């Protein structure tokens, strides 16, 4: 068994999640405390500038102006996040075997064999004086896989531990949404469409907050069903799994003609409808749907998703006692241990890679 810290800075650009896992890369023995280091508004601006600059990248080592500055920031903020986490929880760093470092995705174009996560693993390892496993998507994309989602193998470990009724579907609603279908040894996964990012960006343009807190604004509006039907015509939704998305693949989908409330309701319903679209792709009807990630904290989104997936019950990871906002960070702790042991991170059913494949780069301080 190893003690691993996992770090995730997701497509929502909200902050860095920190989690602790004791695992041998197969079973989960125990969970530890979680932590969160939000980005300031100024830091988010630096990340958004990097997302704007990143489409100029042709080779994954390139760092155009804007991306280089963001990479320094991402590395520094992750080091800070771990230092405050260790201090707040009185954890002696000598008890940590490995840190799993996702970094920040700034560009994801698997068809061009290109996925770019910024954050310097060697600098982080040196700053923390700990071994770091990073660059966990690269090997899969180089081998022709989608490079995402990576959490399915961890979702399977979680579902087994919780003794979930099978088949189980675990949905992560971050900036982008992704789903894992688990039925004993069958593992099928893909991104489903937008998660919170479209809604967050819309709210940021029209209000003082970059989210529809507790789904309050969408709850006062009416979804525009014609808009949603048209949005679902996008070829992504008809493509078979495995498939993955760049955060900004739907950025041009504007609801600006609608009232703020109707716009928020429409984008929320679009996320719910696009997740539900995946049911037709699954070999069997799931016995349970479990929602993780920040979207599980949005009651309006949860209501719309329950309506779409009825009569199957939709619960959140909170309902199962999971540390729901930290599941992805836990996944990167788990994946780091699997990487150390050379175990597969991705499978034909999760990323389309031709055979189970390990990944990640280990750097010692
Ligand atoms: N109380 C809440 N009400 C509404 N939305 C919320 C609430 N809490 C979190 N969220 C949403 O969740 C988002 C953060 O989700 P999460 O941390 O899972 O994203 P992420 O780490 O970027 O994930 P991913 O890598 O999967 O994109 C916020 O940007 C917001 O949209
Ligand atoms: C390229 C990239 O960073 N993708 C993220 C994003 O955020 C959610 C969804 O799109 C998922 O595919 C992935 O993150 C999770 C952690 C994953 O790889 O499973």
From TrEMBL:
Catalyzes the specific phosphorylation of 1,6-anhydro-N-acetylmuramic acid (anhMurNAc) with the simultaneous cleavage of the 1,6-anhydro ring, generating MurNAc-6-P. Is required for the utilization of anhMurNAc either imported from the medium or derived from its own cell wall murein, and thus plays a role in cell wall recycling. Signal peptide: none annotated. This is Anhydro-N-acetylmuramic acid kinase. It catalyses: 1,6-anhydro-N-acetyl-beta-muramate + ATP + H2O = N-acetyl-D-muramate 6-phosphate + ADP + H(+). One of its GO terms (molecular function) is kinase activity. It comes from Afipia carboxydohydrogena (Pseudomonas carboxydohydrogena). It holds the Pfam family AnmK. Its EC number is 2.7.1.170. It is an enzyme of class 2 (transferase). InterPro entries: Anhydro_N_Ac-Mur_kinase (IPR005338), ATPase_NBD (IPR043129). Transmembrane segments: none annotated. Belongs to the anhydro-N-acetylmuramic acid kinase family. ATP binds at residues 10-17. Pathway: Cell wall biogenesis; peptidoglycan recycling; Amino-sugar metabolism; 1,6-anhydro-N-acetylmuramate degradation. It comes from the Bacteria. Keywords: ATP-binding, Carbohydrate metabolism, Kinase, Nucleotide-binding, Transferase.
């Amino acid at each position: 068994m190893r003690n691993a810290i996992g770090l995730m800075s997701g497509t929502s650009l909200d902050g860095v999640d920190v989690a602790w896992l004791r695992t041998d890369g197969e079973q989960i023995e125990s969970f530890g405390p979680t932590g969160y280091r939000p980005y300031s508004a100024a830091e988010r601006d630096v990340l958004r500038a990097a997302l704007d600059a990143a489409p100029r990248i042709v080779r994954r080592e390139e760092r155009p102006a804007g991306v280089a500055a963001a990479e320094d920031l991402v590395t520094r903020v992750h080091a800070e996040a771990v230092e405050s986490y260790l201090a707040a929880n009185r954890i002696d760093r000598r008890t940590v075997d490995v840190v799993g470092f996702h970094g920040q995705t700034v560009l994801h174009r698997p068809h061009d064999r290109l996925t770019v996560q910024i954050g310097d693993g060697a600098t982080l390892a040196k700053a923390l004086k700990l071994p770091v496993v990073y660059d966990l998507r690269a090997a899969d994309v180089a081998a022709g896989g989608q490079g995402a989602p990576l959490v399915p193998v961890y979702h399977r470990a979680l579902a087994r531990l919780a003794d979930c009724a099978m088949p189980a579907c675990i949905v992560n609603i971050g900036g982008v949404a992704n789903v894992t279908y688990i039925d004993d040894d069958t593992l099928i996964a893909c991104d489903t469409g937008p998660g919170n990012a479209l809604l967050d960006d819309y709210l940021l343009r029209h209000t003082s907050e970059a989210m529809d807190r507790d789904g309050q604004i969408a709850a006062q509006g009416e979804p525009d069903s014609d808009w949603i039907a048209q949005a679902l015509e996008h070829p992504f939704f008809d493509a078979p799994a495995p498939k993955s998305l760049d955060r900004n693949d739907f950025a041009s989908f504007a609801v600006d003609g609608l009232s703020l409330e109707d716009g928020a309701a429409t984008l929320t319903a679009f996320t719910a409808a696009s997740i539900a679209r995946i049911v037709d792709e699954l070999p069997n009807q799931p016995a349970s749907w479990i929602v993780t990630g920040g979207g599980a904290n949005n009651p309006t989104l949860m209501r719309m998703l329950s309506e779409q997936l009825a009569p199957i019950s939709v619960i959140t990871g909170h309902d199962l006692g999971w540390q729901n906002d930290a599941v992805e960070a836990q996944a990167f702790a788990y994946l780091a241990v699997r990487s150390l042991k050379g175990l597969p991170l991705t499978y034909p059913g999760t990323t389309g890679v031709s055979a189970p494949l390990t990944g990640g780069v280990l750097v010692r301080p």
